[in-house]
Write a structure and sequence with these properties.
It contains four helices and no strands. With 70 residues, it is mainly α. The N and C termini lie far apart (24 Å).
Amino acid sequence: MPTRELLTVAMLAALGGCEAQLRGHVQGNANVGNDRTVLVALVTQLVPWIGYPRALNALTVVNEVLAEGR
């Protein structure tokens, strides 16, 4: 399940314009044990393939959903 959720986040980030769905799957990742560090690393690795703007959008969603101090 953790790998499946990571792949789903990767695909939604690559598609772009799916921020609502991305929010749900970022929370889903947290629910199966993938923390903020794992998701940030995932998006960082995707930058060459999905581009900087989509990566920034994905990181914004990750930070909104998994804000530190929550």
